[in-house]
Amino acid sequence: MKKIIVLLISLLISMTACTRNNDDDDMMVAVSTPETYSFSRDGNSTVSFSGQTTRIQMANEIINRMKDFSATETTLHNMFSNKNNSFSNEALNSSSKNVKSKTAASKDFFESNASGSAAVRADFEGWLTAQVDEVFPAQNTVASEGIAGQIADGSSTRYVNAKGLEYNQAFNKSLIGALMVDQILNNYISTSVLDAGSNKDNNNNDVVVDGKGYTNMEHKWDEAYGYLYGTSADKANPNATIGSDDSFLNKYLGKVDSDSDFSGIAQTIFEAFALGRAAIVAKDYTLRDAQTAILRENISQVVAVRAVYYLQQGKNLLAAETPDYGAAFHDLSEGYGFVYSLQFTRKPGTNLPYFSRAEVLAFLDQITTGNGFWDVSPATLEAISTEIASRFNFTVAEAKD
């Protein structure tokens, strides 16, 4: 059974909607869902999200460098802030962009919550430091309860802290929420950003940004799109390779979509992006905002499904007659990051995440207390999984396969 979320408001919108033409209130203009994310003005493309592509590339380099035992704490922190030519790609070094400044930086959740933003960034910087200080020195130590080091996972070797956590996985999966999800759901598709200042008047009158071919509202929507599809092989038709274009939201949308219980969610999300952008061109802000609601519901669900999936994988491996600690800890490390990312999800029609930071940290405390993954019980993992699934339109059984 497909578990694609479609809000009641979207049921009022068919694949072709109508909006009033600005020049004639009696004239109705059809707004169709585009087959590709392609928009132009005067024969030139108006789609632009190069900054998002750059940040995804930076984030990919950071997580790869976290596995390099020659990396220093200074190098990793410089990469996070894009300082001192720390990337191997010179185009990234010369960019004015960086990952840190957009982490926990949405207008809706963090503009008036500087302490919250600082706490999140401190978590990421803490994982970078701990990777160097705790894990790297234990490269040749066999991990055990309370001892950082290496642990076998089939033919792979994982490197964990004293509680069994892989910091590189925590950083990677947590960044999906703190960067990609937060910027999409709580920033660029938010009315507080789309309609800021004179954006609506300028969009109504096709007033473009100086030196550009797009209106500011069009560009903001495109920037949201870029955090999901910015490194896609075909950025106008990204679902052709969904799941294989980065190590972040794109990858895990592909994984969720490949589960028969959630098949079609990738198309639902793409169509909401495409129709929302078409609605902006048509000046139909009711239709645009309906797509925002669909995106918030479905992208939030991707995070929740993968959180439950990895908690369940870890639970089953630990509950086996002969526990596979290496594989279990790897799954639980990924689950840790997805649980962390839940604080950046967004309930449609509200200014709230599905889970608060306090709730998320309470979950993480439960699975890392004492000796952490070495001690966590299957019952604890099951209880957390059930609580997460209960706030969404899916069951633990549907997410765990």
Write a concise keyword list for the protein shown above.
mainly alpha, 6 strands, single chain, two-stranded antiparallel sheet
Question: Can you tell me about this structure?
Answer:
The protein has helices at residues 8-11, 50-65, 73-81, 90-93, 107-110, 114-135, 167-188, 191-194, 199-204, 216-229, 249-257, 265-281, 285-319, 325-341, 357-368, 378-390, 396-399, and strands at 16-21, 24-32, 40-41, 44-45, 149-153, 156-160. The protein is mainly alpha-helical and 401 residues long. The chain has a domain at 139-401. A two-stranded antiparallel sheet has the order 1-2. Strands 3-4 form a two-stranded antiparallel ribbon. A two-stranded antiparallel sheet has the order 5-6. The longest helix is centred in the last third of the chain and has 35 residues, at 285-319. It is globular and about 65 Å long.
- Total strands: 6
Shape, please? Answer: globular
The overall average pLDDT, rounded, is 94
Beta-strand content bin:
5-15%
**Poorly predicted tracts of residues:** 4-16, 21-27
- How is the largest sheet built, in terms of strand order? 1-2
The profile of the biggest β sheet is:
2 strands, antiparallel
Rg is 22 Å
SSE ordering: HEEEEHHHHHEEHHHHHHHHHHH
- Give the termini distance in whole angstroms: 13 Å
Structural class: mainly alpha
Helix content estimate: 40-55%
| Count of helical regions | 17
